[in-house]
Structure formats: structure tokens, C-alpha cells
Amino acid sequence: MTTASDLLAAAVRDLAGLPKEGLGEQRDSRWRGTRIVRVGEAWHLGVLLLTETHVLATSEVLRAAEPGRRGYTAESARERAERRALALRGGFAEGEVAHVGWTVVDVEAVDAGGASGPLASIDGVPSVRWSTAGGWMPLEAYLRERVSLLRG
Fold first, then answer.
1. Which of 24, 30, 40, 85 holds its CA 20 to 30 A away from the CA of 64?
2. DSSP per residue over the chain, as a string?
3. Phi/psi at 115 (nearest 5 deg)?
4. What's the pTM?
């Protein structure tokens, strides 16, 4: 039986040399204000972010940018523009992707037959829930598809 750990380690090997996207965390400082700073990099595979040592569940994905226009018709659009500006203020380059709010996935729990984040062992098969409304998909097929998309 192939474990989630084995499948994810193979994906990391397959992704070696491919570009990564930034991992960010919001920081608040009396002197520097609120900003989103880089804390690492990962390969973005849909609902998963892979680093050499961790698996993370994605959350908010931003593209660093100036806030732009001020007359937003929707409050959510204004808030999103402000979040993009926080990433720019924190050191992300204009247009660079920043993943914020990610959480660490406990792969050992999945290997033991449990679940963590979007991963779970379903009838002994490591699986991923690829969307909140979607069902479970075998992790092996999901990773194969996502890695091939990144490889181009």
C-alpha cells in the first residue's frame, strides 16, 4: 500500500527545479504597520502547497499590487485590494503570488488512517478533497495531474 507520505515525497522529487510561489504571513508592527511578509516558498498544487519538508492546505491567494482605484462598488473588492497592497508593502514584488492563511497538514495522521486538512485516508486510500463542495479523489491521481500541469 502506498502512503500519503510516499506520494507527497515523490511529488516533491518530481517538482524539483520548478518555480515556487511565496508563502506569506500577516505581521503587525508599531513601526512598520501591517504587512504580509514572506516566510517561505512552496509549489502550488490546487488545494495543497508543498515545500521540501511540509504539506500545507491553501487558503487565501493574493497577487501583490498597488491598491489602485478607490471607488469600489463592492466592499469585498476594496478589502481584497488592501490585502494585495499589504503583500507589496511586506516585500513581495508587484504581481508576485502570496499564499496567506495556509495551515500545516498532518500527513502522519493521514498515513495512520485519519484525516487532516484536505487529506484523508478513505477505505485505506490516501485521498484529497479538491474543493469544499467536491468529493474525495485518490491523492495519487490528483498529484499526477497537478504535477503535470506545473511541468507544462
1. 30
2. ---HHHHHHHHHHHHTTS--EEEEEEEEETTTEEEEEEEEEEEEETTEEE-SS-EEE--EEEE------S--SSHHHHHHHHHHHHHHHTTPPTT-EEEES-EE--HHHHHTT-EETTEEEETTEEEEE-SSSS-EEEHHHHHHHHHHHHH-
3. -140, 155
4. 0.91
Condensed to tens digits (0 to 9), the pLDDT of residues 59-73 reads 999 999 987 766 667
Which residues face 41 on adjacent strands?
A: 22
φ/ψ of 27, rounded to 5, equals: -125, 145
Q: Which of 144, 123, 132 is nearest to 45 (CA)?
A: 144
Q: Which of 34, 31, 52 is nearest to 43 (CA)?
A: 52
Is residue 6 pLDDT above 70, yes or no? yes
